[in-house]
Amino acid sequence: MVEDNYCFSGNLETRLKKGTRPLRFLIIINLICGAWYLQWRIFNSINVSALWLSIPLLLAEIYCYVGGVMFFIGLWNPLERRIRSLKYLQPTLPEEQIPNVDVFITCYNEPVEMVEKTARAALNMDYPVSKLKVYILDDGNSPEMRAMSQRLNIEDLQTPRLRQEVKSISQRRSQLLANLEQVETLTPELDNAQQILNKFRIKVKPTKEYTKKVLRWFEKQKPLYVPAEVWQDCHLAVLEGFEHQIIKNSLQIEKKYLTLIDLTILSYGIEIKIWDNNRHYQTNKLFTSPNLPAVNEEEGQHLKTIAEVMDSYSYISMGNQGNCLTLYKSYTAIPNMEEIATKSIMAGYLKGLTELVLQFNPSLSHINQYLVKKRAELLDTIEKEELKLSSLLRCHYIARPKPPGKPHHAKAGNINYAIFSGSTKGDFILTLDADHIPQAQFLQRVIPYFFSYNLMTGRYYENMIAFVQTPQAFYNLPSGDPFGHQAHLFYGLIQQSKDGMNSAFYTGTNAVLRREALIMVGLKNFAADFQKDQSRLEEFDLVGGVSSNSITEDMNTAMRLHSAGWRSVYHNEPLSAGLAPDDLISTLQQRLRWAQGTIQVLLRESPLTKEGLTLGQRLQYFQTMYSYFSGFGIVIFLLSPIVYFYTGIVPVVDFNNDFAFYFVPAFVLNRLTFMMASWGIPARELWRSEQYAIALFPLYIQAVISVFSGKPLSFKVTPKERQSGNYFRLIIPQVAIVVLTVGGIFWTGIQLLIGTYKEPALFLLNAGWSIYNISVLSIVIKAATWQPSEKD
């Protein structure tokens, strides 16, 4: 649900999730109580006569406790984030800073209609149309998919938003062309004006030989409307000012600088500027009226004469332009000379305007350079507007080449090819699976995370956030969610807690990533791989930042970004919805890939040894990898009551008072802690999650064995359409456990009834344990037989 009412100051609010502090207290008590139970198990309860069973069970319990420690500590700092949408930022993000975004829709063999829905939704997102492009990354190189993207392009151009954008760009372009025409028309006129202005300036060497030349030049500029006595004073000031320059020149070792004299005649005054390009001046020789510096007698006499005949004067440094002696004399024009004065006065005003332009453009030394600069700027802006017009084709199709014998790296290679070789240029990348349809406000809600506002400078700047992950939601879940796809615990408390340790997971879809971060990390890891194996040079065109080191490229990519110092954000607001697998074989295939890929990362790029990760990040990544080894412990928990029913062997010496004294508080506290941590999530969903965590033990064991055996693993796209077939072959281990457990309960129960078995309490304990095992395993039996109803 988009937050329209902002009841917080600033653009972003980050706070601890409600209930975190009491949860922390309960976590501590729970872990202490669990350790208390374990020490009893280790030192007082092992059945030495059945070590083959008691030791594996104890190790399974220790494994679970260690996993629980990591899980609950990982929940220590869950963050809740609220942010203003892009259009509501305060102050508004300047239009030129709004980044370009590329939407990558990854597909392989999905139906064209499915990808079209996603692409249409992406094109319709609320974002400036000139800054959004959609790329269909087709790893299957389908002609139908290519044709669909071309059709979408044409339809997109007919939408009101695109038509309005075309109109706006065309209007701006027309105005720019008019401005360019005006500049080009003014250029020759300005050249003529510059020729007129050149008559009012002279450049000479500051030596005695040039004094007469300067004075003759000055006399030629005398206008009729200036009183003779005023002109005589100016004549004298020019002479004294030039003599001042001659003296300064004589004091220099290298006498190479020139003197430039500028004359500006206005209707109310005369300004004379005498420039020198000598930058080796002494600061105590600079002055402004009415003060004069302490100088030698000859130089001082010249300056005193200037002070007597002129109204104001100054000698100041103009930086790289040198030093300037400025003299000013006001006057009243001779009556009836206005028409005669016009041409000369207009030249004076033109001179003043020229100097004003150059004053605001200090890098320019000539007025013509200003026009040249403006013309270049206009041409550049026109070109950009024309590029905007051409870039309004917003739906693009990319099918990467797949030469035989060369690694392709599935989804990771598909994305990396688009980044490196696919002519994509966006500052940010939104990755979407083929079936995940984004909401209109997706980018409005996510892009603001990548900018921070500096109060000191009053500007936005890009921060170090590499990606923002949003939840995965599904629009095709049947009632009861028989395959356990709802993941409010993971896409809630768990991701928020990872966010609190700057280790939010990238899950491959519904996330925006910074291109700069991906490319930097991609090049860094490629260089490291190349040092180990130079044959990987042939994969250079796949460098893009998404990891190809595992079939779960998303988590590994996030870990690499974190280890390189980049930050991440989890935004807990569903902004897209996709298709969840609705058959058991697709569900198991998807989860086997997750398990195998995660264990691959542990073996190839362990977070425990990877440089750059913080302690919290190592914990979060390793805890996820550690959890996939649970299959071996689950087998022990499932088989222990079966062994008891058929053999009478128990792995614990005392299943009576001592066991209850130590186990019950630890178990109850553990359940209470989990309940408090998952508060707000429907109990049915939590139970379904717990069922699948146990019932998929064969899949976890298969994942571990397949990875450790070195068997090559391939990325398999999860089918988006229901698969037909008999699924009981997929759950043979679970069915066998259920059958043996039910048989064991009946076998021992009959013995209890006929009196051959004398321990009803022990039977009830194992029967309760077995009923729990049957209830969690029953979910996969239900999933194997599930058929969609009419309302589903």
Automatic annotation (TrEMBL):
Membrane topology: Multi-pass membrane protein
Subcellular location(s) of the protein: Endomembrane system
Top-level division of the source organism's lineage: Bacteria
Pfam families: Cellulose_synt (PF03552)
Major localization class: membrane
Transmembrane stretches, start-end: 23-40, 52-76, 626-647, 659-680, 692-710, 730-754, 761-781
Coiled-coil region: none
Signal peptide range: none
Alphabetical UniProt keywords: Glycosyltransferase, Membrane, Transferase, Transmembrane, Transmembrane helix
Record carries keyword Transport: no
Name of protein: Glycosyltransferase
Annotated source species: Cyanobacterium stanieri LEGE 03274
